[in-house]
Amino acid sequence: MTIKKNLQKIKEQIEVACQRTGRDPNEIKVIAVTKYVSEQTTREALHAGIEHIGENRVDSGLKKMDALGEQGTWHFIGSLQSRKAKEIINKFHYIHSLDRVSLAKEIQKRASENSTVKCFVQVNVSGEESKSGLSPAEALTFIEELSDYPAIQVVGLMTMAPFVDDPEETRPVFRGLKELQDKVQALQLSHAPCNELSMGMSNDFHIAIEEGATYIRLGTSLVGNETLPQK
Fold first, then answer.
1. pLDDT tens, 189-225?
2. Rounded CA gap, 12 and 184, in Å?
3. Is there a contact between 189 and 142 (Cβ–Cβ < 8 Å)?
4. Dihedrals phi, psi of 127, to nearest 5 degrees
């Protein structure tokens, strides 16, 4: 199937999930995860009407971005080393993996004067050791402390659920992130409106939508997997 057809099928699934919970499908934004596909496939995704592109690696992401010019809204969705932050700040439109003070300091240092960097705070709701991110208990204090870094705007929270055979098992993870969002918003922090939730991937995005996702990150089901060599 073409990316355009995949996108249409996904939009239909989004509508069904929204109907179950009384949500507006227009609230859901699809990020095409292009980590494992070529520049040409990424271009095809943009031409198919996909606006949001998600990259996990700094070098390959910047290469695609340079080749594709001003097309698309670019999200850095992988773990970000502090030393690599300088390469993507002021280039990627969103960072989904802010999870420590050292990275916040680097973002503040590298941001253009009088500009803000839109960030999602990454939260490890499931508690898996293999996953990055703050615990929910740590995240609230961390977000409050980010007021010391005026270049950072916390637009939302991000999490990754375990990969399981039954997607229904991911529901408590997504619900936990939504509950944390409610706590952040109750603080009414000017630097952390936290209106967005980045959660849900190809196998479980319908559950994530039912629990409040506004950004879903789709790779295989949308753009496929070309098993490109890692660099």
1. 999 999 999 999 999 999 999 999 999 999 999 999 8
2. 32
3. no
4. 80, 10
* Statement: residue 229 has pLDDT above 80: no
CATH number assigned to the domain covering 3-220: 3.20.20.10
- For residue 55, CA distances in Å to 34, 62, 93 come to 6, 9, 11
Q: Identify the pLDDT of residue 152.
A: 98
Domain boundaries in the chain?
3-220
Considering Cα of 128, then 134, then 136, then 137, what sign does the dihedral take? positive
Q: How far apart are CA 108 and CA 110, in angstroms?
A: 6
* Mean pLDDT estimate for the chain: 95
| Strand pairing report for 117-122 and 94-98 | parallel
Backbone angles phi, psi at 86, to 5 degrees: -60, -25
- Determine the pLDDT at residue 114: 86
Average pLDDT estimate for 222-229: 74
DSSP states along the chain: --HHHHHHHHHHHHHHHHHHHT--GGG-EEEEE-TTS-HHHHHHHHHTT--EEEES-HHHHHHHHHHHTT-SEEEE-S---HHHHHHHTTTSSEEEEE-SHHHHHHHHHHSPTT--EEEEEEB-TT--TTS-SB-HHHHHHHHHHGGG-TTEEEEEEE------SSGGGGHHHHHHHHHHHHHHHHH--TT----EEE---TTTHHHHHHTT-SEEEESHHHH----PPP-
- Looking up tokens 């934004």 gives 29
